[in-house]
Structure formats: C-alpha cells, structure tokens
Amino acid sequence: MNGIWCPGAIGNVGVGAVSSVVSWALYGSGAGVVVASSRELITLRLSALAGALLVGIAGARWLSSEVDKALSNESVRQVAGKSLSPEQKEEIKRCGTPREVLEAVARA
C-alpha cells in the first residue's frame, strides 16, 4: 500500500523466530556450543527457552510497530494536503488500525 511493506503474520513469525534463535545463541544455553566440534552436546534449558520466546515476541511486536508507524506517517502526509468535510473527518476517526486510516484518507 503506497510503497509501504506490510509483512503480515508470516513476516512477524519469521522475525520472531530469528530473534529467538539469535537470543538463544548469544545469551542462552546455545552460547556455550562449539560449532566445529561434533562432540558438543546441545542443551535447551527452560530459562533459555523462555528468554528466547520473550525476545521473539518483542521482535515481532517491533516489526508491527514499525509498519504501523510508516502507515501513520503516510496518512499524515496525505491528509495534510486535503481539505476534509466533517463527515470525512468522522469516518477517519472511526477507523481502528493505521491501515484503515490510510485507506480512509486515500478515499477522502
């Protein structure tokens, strides 16, 4: 929509998965794993799993927030050049998501 990338659920899952694996590898029990040795035992502790899950959720939420911010900025940019009637303003106020706001502004 207007050159703004909206990754959706699959993008959020991807970012969350990468974030959680990186967190586990850097700070969890994966931090002590030697990659070049075949004798190393890989473990997964509950605390490392919980930390990775939390980081994954935060990563996905970050991506959603960045997309919402881009949509909101585009809405403001478009509405700045328009003269809106009271009915159009009410329609925009009733919108729930930044995507709906941008669509309403584009229709106005």
Summary of the model, kept short:
The chain has 108 residues and is mostly helical. 68% of the residues lie in helices and 0% in strands.
Mind explaining what this structure looks like?
The protein has 108 residues and is an all-alpha fold. The protein has one domain. Helices cover 68% and strands 0% of the residues. The chain contains four helices and no strands. It has helices spanning 8-27, 46-80, 86-93, 98-107. Helix 1 (8-27) crosses helix 2 (46-80), helix 2 runs parallel beside helix 4 and helix 3 runs antiparallel to helix 4 (98-107).
List keywords for this structure.
4 helices
> So what's the oligomer here?
single chain
Largest sheet: none
Q: Indicate the mean pLDDT.
A: 78
Residues in helix, %: 55-70%
First CA to last CA: what distance?
16 Å
- Give the beta-strand count: 0
Strand content: under 5%
Quick one: overall form? rod-shaped
Q: What structural category do the secondary elements indicate?
A: mainly alpha
Number of helices: 4
Count of separate structural domains = 1
Rg, Å, rounded: 21 Å
What's the layout of helices and strands?
Blueprint (H helix, E strand, L loop, with lengths): L7 H20 L18 H35 L5 H8 L4 H10 L1
